[in-house]
Write a structure and sequence with these properties.
- It is globular, with a radius of gyration of 23 Å.
- Helix 6 runs antiparallel to helix 10.
- The chain has 2 domains: 3-129 and 222-228, no CATH class; 134-213, no CATH class.
- The protein has 234 residues and is mostly helical.
- It has helices at residues 3-19, 28-45, 62-66, 71-76, 78-92, 106-112, 140-149, 151-163, 182-189, 196-228; strands at 117-118, 131-132.
- Helix content is 56%, strand content 2%.
- The mean pLDDT is 94.
- It starts with a helix and ends in a 6-residue tail after the last helix.
Length: 234
C-alpha cells in the first residue's frame, strides 16, 4: 500500500467517524456537540489546525477513586464501573472518551487464573491499581523456533498455559498437525480431551468466555450511551 492509499483510507475512516451516522443522539444539541468534538480530534490526527487543542485525558483508575469506589469495586462490578466513568465524563466533558473499558474485567481474568496481573482485592489491596507481573513468558529460543514455525500451536500449548492457570493442562495436548492422518490419528490423539484435567480447563474456558461476552455487551451499551450524549469514542 502506498502512502497516498494509506492516507486516503485514513481520511475515509475519519470521515465516516465524523459523520455520526448510526448514532442515536439524545437531542440535537448532543449531535452538534459530537460533530464539533469529533472534527476537532480528526483535524489533530490529520495534522490540521483544529479550533482548539483536543482534550483527551487518560484517566486511568481516577474515575473509581474520585467517585468513592475501590479498584476492586470497578473491576468486578460492571455497574459500579459504569456509574464511576459516566460521572467523570459529565464532570470533565473531554473531547474523546472510551468509558470504563480501562477497568478491565476482573471476573474474566480471575476465571482464567491470569498470571500477568495482580488483581486488586485478590493478590493486592482493594485500593491498588492492578499490578503487572514481569516474567519470561516466551523464551527466546522457543519463540524464534516454535512460534515462527507454528504460531497457533505455540500460543495454545505453550504461551496460554503459562499465562492462564486454568489452561495449564493444555500443554499436554498433542500438536494439531498430529491429528492429520485419517481415523488412526484422530483416535490416538483425541483421548486427552477426555481427561479430568483438560475437561476442567475447557469448561473453565467456556465459563470465562461467557463472562467476556457479558462484559463486552456492557461496554457496547455504554459506548452507545456515551456517543448519544455527544462524546466521540475511538
Amino acid at each position: 500500500m502506498t502512502e497516498k492509499q494509506n492516507n486516503d483510507k485514513t481520511k475515509q475512516r475519519l470521515d465516516a467517524w465524523c459523520s455520526g451516522e448510526g448514532i442515536e443522539f439524545v437531542n440535537d444539541e448532543a449531535k452538534e456537540t459530537y460533530k464539533k468534538r469529533v472534527k476537532r480530534v480528526a483535524d489533530a490526527i490529520q495534522l490540521k489546525i483544529p479550533d482548539r487543542v483536543p482534550i483527551t485525558p487518560s484517566f486511568g483508575m481516577f474515575p473509581a477513586i474520585d467517585n468513592g469506589y475501590t479498584c476492586e469495586d470497578v473491576m468486578f462490578d460492571y455497574d459500579k464501573a459504569h456509574k464511576a466513568w459516566m460521572k467523570t465524563l459529565n464532570d470533565f466533558e473531554p473531547d474523546l472518551y472510551n468509558g470504563s473499558a480501562y477497568a478491565l474485567s476482573g471476573n474474566v481474568l480471575e476465571l482464567l487464573d491470569y498470571k500477568q496481573l495482580k488483581l486488586p482485592g485478590r493478590e493486592s489491596a482493594a485500593e491498588h491499581v492492578f499490578q503487572f507481573v514481569e516474567d519470561e513468558y516466551a523464551k527466546a529460543d522457543e519463540f524464534y523456533d516454535h512460534f515462527i514455525d507454528d504460531p497457533a500451536d505455540f500460543m495454545s500449548r505453550v504461551y496460554l498455559p503459562r499465562v492462564c492457570g486454568i489452561l495449564e493442562p493444555l500443554k499436554n495436548v498433542r500438536p494439531s498437525y498430529e491429528f492429520f492422518g485419517y481415523y488412526i490419528s484422530i483416535l490416538g490423539n483425541v483421548g486427552i480431551f477426555g481427561t479430568p484435567e483438560v475437561e476442567e480447563a475447557l469448561n473453565a474456558l467456556i465459563k470465562a468466555g461467557k463472562e467476556a461476552v457479558k462484559w463486552g455487551t456492557h461496554l457496547a451499551k455504554e459506548t452507545k450511551e456515551i456517543m448519544g450524549m455527544g462524546f466521540p469514542v475511538m
